[in-house]
Amino acid sequence: MKTGLSTRKQPYFISHAREFYQFCLEGKLDIMAYTTVEAFVSGLSKDMPDWLILQHRESVYAFQRYWKLYGHSKNKNSRDNIKSWEDAESAMRNSLRLHHRSRETEKSYLRWIQQFKDHIKIKNPQDVTDKHFVLFITFLAVNRHISSSTQNQSFNALLFFYRSVLNRTPEGIRDSVRSCIPPKLPEVMSRNEISYLLAKLKPPYRLMCALIYGGGLRINECLNLRIKDIDYTNQCLYIRSGKGNKDRRTLLSSVILEDIKLHISGNVKPLYQKDRIEGNPGVPLPEALSRKFPNAANEWGWYWVFPSKRISFDPVSAVTARFHIYPTSLQREFHTVKKQIGILRHVSVHTLRHSFATHMIEDGYDVRTVQELLGHSSVNTTMIYTHIAEKNKLGARSPLGTVWNSNPIQQAMRENRED
Q: How far apart are CA 358 and CA 361, in angstroms?
């Protein structure tokens, strides 16, 4: 098996993998389980530096990939452990978290597996064949007329299911009918519509939508903003672990700096102080930071810019903490105000992001700059906004202007008027 590791690193990774394997044997734990990995990493010394903890974790993931390819074939095939669809869904959930897929990806993939199960009507997942894969994807395209992007999502979900749970790559998947429905242009709101919308929104939803439109944020990127992510000096926002788990910087308009400061000092700071006085749980931290920095959850810099008013329990991470405002609250307020001002088109909070990109191009900014602000991996994704901008995207002017305003043509037009 090719590990992709340098010769210098291989002895360290092998040593860490042996530690993990011995840990699993002593505790009779499942080598492939996500909880086993977390238990192993949690048991490491707290004095261990962060880079060494990360090296242990990467070693475990490399060992699990090896075990999946070779360990089960020599011992017991993982497919034999799947006795019901509940076991299959549990195995897929663990595999998704092992690959660090987002929560939204996990939900959507599991929904597709549920639809797949309901469509094929087979009780035991071990009886699923490659033909079922082809038939279901073809059914989605031919009978349900879903878009190409939705079909691609279902295709990827099923492919992940076959590879990670059933332990095989389906054959004949090229025989399935793929959707050819072209992608539609995104809806864009005019500047006047956004102005009326922001005027009608109540706080803090007005400030949230202003940040989304002002910097081209996704809704979750806005909700996940922490106090430390606001750079007042350089007037920018730091987006942490955005789509694709990527970080970036984007714009923070100077016109809302005072409103943000007022919101934080008047609404967020008192709530934070109340939590500390009453001993309420802190905020959840990404990945293993809560273990590496136990007090960070109660620090002001990690507090939400838009915290929820209630302490909540997350059933997935089994953590009780103060989370940010729920996305549905913002979406519900947005749609209520949209109807009040008479916008009949199908627009949502995400439309503000599309409007930001379109208006930036209309104002003469190049596509490459807009791409970096939006966090797109490919400039081709950003190019779609050049087809929406009402004004000339490239700042080019027709050569007719200089010719038409020349003296000969103007003199001829004056003579025609006199005649």
A: 5
